[in-house]
Write the structure tokens for this entry.
Amino acid sequence: MDILVVGVNYRTAPIELRERVAFRAEHLAQAYAELQQDTGLPEALILSTCNRVEVYAGAPASGDVASRLVSFLRSHGAFLEGEGQDSFYAYEEAQAVRHLFRVASGLDSMVLGEAEILHQVKQAYERAKGHGATGKVLNALFQKALNAGKAVRTHTAIGRGGMSVGTVAIELAQKIFGELRPYTVLLLGAGKVSEMTLKRLIARGASRVRIANRSAERADLLATRYGGERVALDALEDQLVEADIVIASCSVERPLLTGERIQRLMPRRHHRPLCLIDLGVPRNIESSVGQAENIYLFDIDDLQDLVAHHHGQRQQAAGEAQRIIDSKVRHFLAWRQQERGAFIPSASVLAGAR
Amino acid sequence: MLLFVHITCVLLSYAAFLLAFYSGLLFLLQERQLKHKRMGVLFHRLPALDTLDRVNVRAIGWGFALLSVGILVGAIIGRRATGQWWNNDPKVYGTVMLWSVYLLLWLLRVRSALRGRKVAVLSVLGFGLVLVIWLGVNHALLLGTKAL
């Protein structure tokens, strides 16, 4: 036995158990000392995130290392007899390698393909190394795991965002305008989804915000919350001349914006591109508006289709990611095999030593 | 020396028009993704429309300015050699046509009379004219001299 992992994750243990067994960064030095004392492992690494707590061991150790590690984690979490009985899993050798590579790539995450875990794995590795807990086996294993995680992110679409109507809308706006800072966002109607979308736009740099709403009170509230300005719904045309990104979600009987109206406005806008996001049902903007030049219109169905499409892409990307991981695991195991073989000096080495 | 300036300016202006062609082409591709509401590989790989538009406008502006200097210096060279400002050379006609086309395109874009897709289409077509004049006219001249 060389490589082993024991742990709990979001699938096997509820948050109440995970938080007890988790390790805080400032207690790691002590934890590594105890681990060394309890198990006598020459190489160990603790990976503790909000979704998993795992201990990796790299050692030609004797005896039942897995059960010793489980009892180490149990006593760290002050588990009672019988508590979290089925929560722990253990993988050895090839399975352990595969597990870590999947974790580092975000394939084992609650949100498939999330990027944070790669950083967390890296941090855990650096800390373990800092505490002198790792050695030849785990150093190689974790370097290869980080490498696999990066390869998966670069070569597949697994990490691509756009999982909600709001994030898809922002990705689209960014592909029209690039940097959002100099552009004006106009909110027509101030519903919940509009607010979420606005919030994300601001997070991506949008700084000029105008809000038009039936209820001035709600518009004022959003204006103060997001550093925007309330404008009158009556002055819609003037606002449309200045705006670059419009998020519409009014409840209306007839569309606010018709193809004819927008055609009339475009010369006044000097034909600057206009991104229209229509979250309203019934729609606030006539679909013919989207055919006009330099206008990019997305209604709620377009956005939902794109979300669904993304979801499908992620699933597909997960398949590709698995193939990359499989090949990286094979490489690593082949390397390990060679390393072990190298302990027996070959004829040429002996000849050189003479 | 003048000849060197002439050739450098003209070649650099062609390079700028190539850049305008390229950014125009990418603009058309990205615009298509957005209009068709697709977020595929092209969508993610290609830059934002605004970025491509900026590159395009600048390339047209620089190309036009360099071509103007190139033509002016060319005229001076011609005057020194033949005593005339104007030569009845198909290449000269072609180049002046090219100059007018890009002047028009640049004016339309800068004054925002045209924007987006149409400018992109014209920068792609404009480079076609560059190729016709640069390669085609050289080729025709070569054939012409051979025929003589």
User: Anything to note?
Assistant: Residues 2-147 of chain B form one domain. Chain B has a mean pLDDT of 88.
